[in-house]
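Q: I'm writing up a methods section and want to include an example of the input and output format. Could you take the sequence below and give the corresponding predicted structure tokens, formatted cleanly so I can copy it straight into the document?
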Amino acid sequence: MDAEKIISELNYKAVRSSGAGGQNVNKVSSKVVLNFDLLQSTSLTDEEKERLSAKLKTKLSQEGLLILNCDEDRSQLKNKEIVTKRFIELMTKSLVIPKQRKATKIPRSVVEKRLKQKASVSEIKQSRKKPEL
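A: Here is the clean output for your methods example:
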């Protein structure tokens, strides 16, 4: 994954932010909306696209668009930096291939310890019974 190529494919849109902020909210478009078309991306291989679409299927729209918002700061530039950083982190985490788990045999000492413990608990319970006459 080449981050610079992917960043060049991103579409940004500035929107008026909601919430507190007084008159500034009504006149300044500080919220940034990032759009990334996963299916039409030229910087990703087909294998990477499949992996990303599987991992991010809850975040993708029906058209295959990944949409991220940021309105944490009052500055449009800072919001753009934050949402871009968040996008890159999301992509790198989603492209990580998990290590295959190797099944291992249970050690003999562990099995013996478990059986010994079961036997001791059984013996304690047997000693609680009333003796038969």
